[in-house]
């Protein structure tokens, strides 16, 4: 793939602009409907310019997932540092609140991460390696809470999967339009966050 004769900073900016365009489009249409032409039009360039920065649609989707994963990892590093000054429970509640708010605000991105069917194709963007670091980082955070005596000692990986499964359930119900009448997603998420803390401390 030919690369543009620009500085690394300009190349990175254009790649990020294109990935940001995908995020904007995901607020409007499903991931499988996002086209190269749409991405190019969103940032005001020819669709041929796209191929200067990405090989194809699959590559930009993989790059977007990797960028989001890298941001999550960096965010976790900051949260783990904060546990030296404040309780792990407070840090975890902040994390769960931010996670839920982002998922509700960007349901298509949440769907791309969690609800896309696994594909048998090699190098498919539907593989789930990008989710594993999320469980690992959450496990690290919960382990700190266990070591500090804030949480009951248990398998950190199992606890992290339990926490995210519990939080994901109402988000998936909301995205799929299965939320019962008279129950709001925000209220249900609030209840589940408290149940998650009860599970971890009991």
Descriptive account of the structure:
It contains 9 helices and no strands. The chain is mostly helical and 202 residues long. Helix 4 (57-82) runs parallel beside helix 7 (132-147), helix 5 packs across helix 6 (107-114) and helix 5 (88-105) runs parallel beside helix 8 (156-175). The chain is globular and about 55 Å long.
Keywords:
single chain; 202 residues; mainly alpha; 9 helices
Architecture blueprint of SSEs:
Layout: H1 8-26, H2 36-43, H3 47-53, H4 57-82, H5 88-105, H6 107-114, H7 132-147, H8 156-175, H9 185-201
What kind of assembly state do the chains in view correspond to? single chain
Please tell me what the overall shape is: globular
Main pleated sheet: none
Written as H for each helix and E for each strand, in order along the chain, the element string is HHHHHHHHH
Unreliable sequence segments = 118-126
Gap between N and C termini, in Å? Answer: 55 Å
Structural category: mainly alpha
What is the number of E strands? Answer: 0
Strand content: under 5%
Mean model confidence by pLDDT: 87
Fraction in helix: 55-70%
Radius of gyration of CA atoms, rounded to a whole number: 19 Å
What's a quick, concise take on this entry?
By secondary structure, the protein is mainly alpha-helical. The protein is 69% helix and 0% strand.
């Amino acid at each position: 793939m030919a690369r543009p004769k620009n500085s690394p900073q300009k190349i990175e900016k254009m790649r990020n602009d294109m990935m940001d365009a995908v995020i904007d489009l995901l607020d409007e249409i499903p991931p499988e409907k996002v086209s190269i032409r749409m991405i190019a039009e969103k940032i005001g360039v020819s669709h041929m310019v796209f191929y200067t920065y990405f090989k194809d649609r699959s590559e930009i989707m993989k790059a977007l997932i990797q960028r989001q994963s890298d941001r999550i990892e960096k965010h976790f590093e900051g949260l783990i540092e904060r546990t030296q000054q404040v309780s792990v429970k407070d840090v975890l509640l902040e994390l769960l609140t931010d996670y839920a708010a982002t998922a509700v605000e960007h349901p298509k991105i949440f769907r791309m991460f969690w609800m896309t069917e696994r594909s048998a194709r090699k190098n498919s963007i539907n593989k789930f390696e990008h989710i594993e670091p999320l469980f690992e980082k959450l496990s690290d955070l919960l382990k700190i809470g266990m070591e500090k005596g804030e949480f009951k000692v248990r398998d950190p990986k199992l606890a992290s999967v339990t926490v995210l499964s519990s939080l994901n359930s109402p988000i998936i119900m909301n995205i799929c339009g299965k939320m019962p009448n008279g129950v709001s997603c925000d209220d249900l998420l609030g209840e589940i966050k408290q149940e998650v803390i009860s599970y971890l401390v009991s």
